[in-house]
DNA-binding response regulator
Amino acid sequence: MIKLMLIDDHAMFRSGLKKMLQDEPDFQVVDEAGDWAEGLAKLRSHEQLDVVLLDINLPARSGFDLLEVIHAEFPALRVIMLSMYSQQQYALRALRAGAHGYVAKDMEASDLIGAVRTVLNGKKYMSAAVTEMLISSLNGSTDDPSEPRKLSIREAQIFELLVRGESLTMIASRLSISVKTVSTYRSRILEKRGVTTNAELIQYAVRNNLID
């Protein structure tokens, strides 16, 4: 039996993901968590896990922070990163950080199941859509304006929340940082994306297919 754990802050998404996985007769979702601290505590409580599906954008601390701890404490554990975006920048960042796979949250069931089986066989996994974008990038389209390559991990995290329409106060609460700090990050993001307002930032994201 392949034992899995889900770490994502959206309960409804976790529920759907769990059902999708457990339709496979040899998959068992043994636990789930909604944030960084809960995820780490539950990881430490299990003697045997095979794969963890980890959201990049968690409250307080990012999935990348937890990935670093997982590598240190559970070196044999396979990690598949989840994100609401399929852009190559996020996939590359996840793989460079040591993730074994990367799947966008709008994936088909076959993508997710294929990802789990692939990483358990000791290989890296990316969906066909992400792989195609990476190949296009290598073929000369590295200056694609849709790639927010100049954003730091924290800036990319706040960028995602801003274009989803969250206020500075909501973001500050979600990430456990001050509103002033969020405002500073917002200013950097606007400057790097060449816009001046949240509305323009959302338009930028829509124009470059960074949000649905």
Q: What stands out?
A: Residues 20 and 109 are 6 Å apart (CA to CA). The first helix runs from residue 11 to 22.
